[in-house]
Structure formats: C-alpha cells, structure tokens
Amino acid sequence: MPEIKANPAALEASANAIDANADAIQRELMTANDLLASLRRTFIGQRAESFFRQYDAAFEEMRSLTALIHNLAEELRQSARALRAADQG
C-alpha cells in the first residue's frame, strides 16, 4: 500500500495561513470600498456612473473570491482530518 506523504498538521497550518490572508484581503477590500463610497457623493456624471457600475461588479467578484479562498482552506482542514483518521484507524 502506498505511503501517505501529507502531514495533517502542515495542512492545518497552511489552511490557517490561507484564512488569514483571505481575511487580510477582505479587510483591504472593505477599506477601499469605504473610500470609494465617500467619493460616490462627489464624483458624478456619466463617467462616474460607468466607473461605479464596473467597480460594483468587480467588488462582488472579489468578495466571492475571498469566500472561495476560505472554502479552499476548509477543504484543506477536512483533508487533514481525513488523513489523521486514516492514520489512526
């Protein structure tokens, strides 16, 4: 039977680092969003409308990306648990 080379503790540590990075990205997104929200009141006209339409779409995509990153971290944790259970069982 082949030997499993993955280390559950290392997978969990990687998952924690990935989560921390996703949280940092989320905080930066919210900071940028707050800044741009203040500009919405002063930046007006067709160019502004076009910019904010594009920004709003991109912002939602970026928020979805951070959720995806958190999901990947959770999958790593699940893999770590499965490996640990297989090793003990």
UniProtKB/TrEMBL annotation:
The keyword Coiled coil belongs to this UniProt entry's keyword annotation: yes
SUPFAM superfamilies for the chain: EsxAB dimer-like
Pfam families: WXG100
Protein keywords: Coiled coil
Entry keyword Metal-binding: no
Coiled coil spans: 22-75
Name used for this protein in its record: WXG100 family type VII secretion target
